[in-house]
């Protein structure tokens, strides 16, 4: 990108609208470098640079970075999309419990990103998460607990007085009160975020009655603003199931079939589907690209 800069005030020969469009195609590393060209290009690139925030459980810099952005009025209102990646390494327990706790302590900060309209929640695949079948249930519980915690704060259900995020496993990890303190900001009683897009990747194929009946989940799924819902379901397989197993046996968990049968009253309940304009469903092992599902049971307008 070559620019003839006579003066910083008149050196940009294209109107800002065109530069905004150009910046939308640039990688973040180049956007950050634009501030070295001139302050005008830096200010034009700033909204695109902070449009998407990526938060990873086991990246030590993620909690600190998110906290810094949440405290900056200049940066906070540029955020339109939040990507939460739960890459917990679970095999006979969490290997990096400190990182997991830092992530839980950081989650309440997403409440301050009032202009974000897209939320993406992604977990590791089961093949990455465990090596033994006896870890399946605990790993699945962890996923649902993380979903519930994230929904708790996005739905505007946070605790204003104590400013604490509930961690049901905290008692198992040396915290007797079962709660984790969060960084002190002005007011955690922010209203629910008006999400337009919700994407959940590697969703457990387990019908968790506790999750889908929780107040947090019901408030999220009843948001009239959500018009784009995308679910990628990760089917659990029995690692010891032989390819030569008798006909009629299944390598999948029994709960998987219940999960798909209950979709019309859980993730695809009428409260959320009635407002959808985009619905994406994918499960490679169960649906493939041609879902074996009677879509008529889902009340779509």
Give your account of this protein's structure.
This protein is of the alpha/beta class and 301 residues long. The protein has two domains: 7-49; 51-297, no CATH class. 32% of the residues lie in helices and 14% in strands. It is built from twelve helices and eight strands. It has a six-stranded parallel beta sheet with strand order 1-2-3-6-7-8. It has a two-stranded antiparallel ribbon with strand order 4-5. Strand 2, helix 6 and strand 3 form a beta-alpha-beta unit. Helix 8 packs across helix 10 (215-221). Mean pLDDT is 74; it is low at 1-9 and 160-184. Residues 8-57 form the F-box domain. Pfam families: F-box-like.
Mean pLDDT: 74
- The residue fraction in helices comes out at 25-40%
Q: Largest sheet, if any? A: 6 strands, parallel
Q: Beta-strand percentage?
A: 5-15%
Query: Number of helix segments?
Result: 12
**Structure class:** alpha/beta
Distance between the termini: 47 Å
Number of domains: 2
Strand order of the largest sheet: 1-2-3-6-7-8
The low-pLDDT segments are 1-9, 160-184
Tell me the total number of β-strands: 8
Radius of gyration: 22 Å
Q: Could you state the order of secondary-structure elements as H and E?
A: HHHEHHEHEHHEEEHHEHHE
